[in-house]
Design goal:
Blueprint (H helix, E strand, L loop, with lengths): L2 H43 L6 H11 L2 E5 L7 E10 L4 E6 L4 E3 L12 E2 L10 E2 L2 E4 L10 E10 L7 H18 L8 E4 L9 H5 L7 E2 H4 L5 E9 L8 E2 L7 E2 L7 H14 L13 E5 L10 H12 L2 E5 L6 H8 L4 E5 L15 E6 L10 H7 L6 E6 L6 E2 L16 H9 L12 H7 L2 E2 L3 H11 L21 E11 L2 E9 L12 E9 L6 E5 L3 E4 L8 E10 L3 E2 L6 E4 L1
Length: about 575
């Protein structure tokens, strides 16, 4: 055996092993440096510390996990672990592994039309959410993910340039969605995916969380693949009260689930976050607020209107303007006002900050019917808001100034055929219409108005049931009665064609702890086998019925309690009574 050859072979083997070890070590160091850099990127997003390697292993081995509440896409909110987003493709990704969970597992029904709505505006085709699916093994061929360690709420803002939409569609639903899930606390992060810029009122969104909200455009700055370690997607719709006319002409929602109590709790939260406190004022220091607009839908005789209000109600009258004042200073003024007066417009959403007992006065330009545009009337009328509402409409065409030559989205109509222009100019009232580009509606709503003072004051005198009084106003109870207890029935036959049915019950259990102005009871009596029933409203806890009661007949009887004419309790279990 050639010793030098052997030694040379051994040396080559040792060098090769060392080189291999060096290459592996170099690769490991490169991977560590890459992970360290990605960890730094994650830290840029959040102060929450993250073990990048552990997060990556969890994503690769367990994949994405999803559990949703709600039966339909219109009421669904989903919680995800490791939902990812590709900034290049602008798509969310669900990574499948053997440990993945997808509930509900809808299959292709997930695309009919979507998994859920990203905004609180129901079933709008620009607001749908869905995701692409990939096996977790595909992560080997993709850019290394940047993890967002915060608990996030992912949603779409509907129109962040309009105060009504900001409060009704975004802030209120976000606030109460966060109330539903304990880990969506003040440390949670909001992620807005609709693609808008910040908008003029972005600071209002910042009030909902201590973390800076992320816009869709921000995500591109952090990497090509973003993974949210824990996220909720979608918004509760329980706090919305108005639909904007996408399917049918606009109006109150058919099934309003929110009351003034929840609106006022939210308003109080916002005032605390804005550092607004209620100042103690002298007893006689009531005042009226007039909202002044700067560019369109102007009150052309504003000074005359202010003087007339001061003389009529013996109150000082002040103006506020979104163009000239900060939002928090406006809320500070409105939160102590006895009356808020404004042309129809998004600024009237600030009426939610009015104290109980105050009045909202909404002015409408010529040819605009107040009964067809009622977001603020609906808000003021919610049980527990305790606001008075009055609408005034300009009925004098000469008191309007229209702008036919403006752009179409500011009420211009010169782009229309001459015949259509003439029809609009001759029209006395905008017919009911769908959102959002009806030229007649836009033409009329952007008119400036000279308010006819005599008719305006007459409408106020007729519409205000009582003079706005903040001192005497207290929250109206909306407590419903419980079931009546121990319902019983007794029957007797008086003759072959005459019988009596006596029904009695005990008061609801909660009534003994309540002060209720009026308590009555509703009794339904139905002959077994019939489709109709006889209803009775009674003031007492027992009553003997003889009219229309037949011998040898079976009757079904239901009893419930009613507070103050309209607070209905549940029916007690049905009684089966045989004469």
């Amino acid at each position: 055996m050639n010793l030098p050859a052997v030694l040379n072979g051994l040396l080559v083997s040792v060098v090769a092993a060392l080189l291999w070890k060096y290459v592996r070590l170099s690769e490991h160091m490169t991977q560590l440096e890459e992970e360290l850099q990605l960890t730094r990127q994650s830290q840029e997003l959040s102060q929450v510390r993250i073990d990048y390697h552990a997060a990556l292993m969890a994503l690769q081995e367990q994949g994405t996990r999803m559990v949703c509440t709600g039966k339909m896409h219109t009421d669904r909110i989903c919680r995800f672990d490791y939902l990812c987003y590709c900034t290049e493709a602008e798509e969310f990704i669900f990574f499948h592994s053997n440990a993945s969970v997808m509930l509900p597992n809808l299959g292709s029904r997930r695309f009919q039309p979507a998994l859920l709505d990203l905004s609180s505006v129901e079933d709008h085709n620009t607001q749908y959410f869905n995701f692409l699916e990939l096996p977790a093994a595909a992560l080997k061929y993709m850019p290394k993910p940047v993890f967002v360690p915060d608990v996030t709420l992912i949603l779409n803002r509907f129109n962040p340039d309009n105060l009504m939409h900001i409060f009704h569609d975004d802030l209120l639903p976000i606030f109460y969605t966060m109330q539903q899930y304990s880990d969506l606390d003040d440390e949670a992060r909001l992620v807005f995916m609709e693609g808008w810029g910040e908008g003029a009122h972005f600071d209002l969104y910042r009030l909902l969380s201590s973390k800076q909200p992320l816009l869709k455009d921000h995500l591109r700055n952090f990497g090509k693949l973003m993974c949210f370690t824990k996220s909720y997607v979608g918004l509760s719709k329980m706090t919305t009260w108005y639909q904007y006319g996408f399917v049918q002409p606009q109006g109150p929602k058919a099934n309003i689930l929110v009351s003034g109590n929840e609106i006022r709790q939210f308003a109080s939260f916002m005032m605390r976050r804005l550092n607004i406190t209620q100042e103690q004022r002298p007893e006689d220091d009531d005042y009226i607020v007039v909202f002044s607009r700067a560019s369109n839908r102007l009150i052309l005789n504003e000074a005359e209107l202010i003087l007339a209000l001061a003389q009529e109600f013996k109150m000082r009258t002040v103006t506020v303007s979104l163009e000239e004042q900060t939002f928090d200073s406006i809320v500070q003024v409105i939160s102590g006002a006895s009356m808020l007066i404004s042309m129809h417009g998004a600024q009237l959403i600030t009426s939610m900050f009015l104290p109980r007992g105050a009045a909202v006065i909404e002015l409408f330009p010529y040819a605009v019917n107040p009964e067809q545009y009622t977001p603020y009337k609906t808000l003021a009328s919610l049980p527990g808001m305790d606001l008075q509402y009055v609408a005034w409409r300009n009925n004098i065409e000469e008191n309007s100034v229209a702008y036919s030559d403006r752009p179409w989205d500011q009420g211009g109509i010169i782009h229309l055929e001459k015949e259509e222009q003439e029809r609009i100019l001759a029209s006395k009232e905008v017919p009911r219409h769908l959102c959002c580009r009806n030229p007649e509606w836009l033409f009329r709503i952007y008119q400036d108005t000279v308010v006819d003072i005599p008719s305006f004051l007459e409408v106020l005198r007729e519409g205000l049931k009582v003079k706005p009084n903040l001192k005497k106003s207290k929250p109206i109870s909306t407590v419903h009665p419980g079931r009546v207890r121990e319902p019983k029935c007794q029957t007797s036959v008086q003759a072959t064609n005459e019988a009596k049915l006596a029904v009695s019950w005990q008061i609801p259990w909660n009534l003994k702890y309540l002060k209720v102005r009026e308590v009555k009871y509703e009794v339904w009596i139905q002959e077994q086998g019939e489709n109709t029933y006889m209803p009775y409203i009674l003031p007492h806890q027992n009553y003997t019925f003889s009219e229309n009661i037949k011998p040898f007949t079976t009757y079904l009887v239901w009893v419930r309690c009613i507070f103050n004419k309209n607070l209905l309790g549940p029916f007690a279990d049905v009684l089966i009574c045989k004469t």
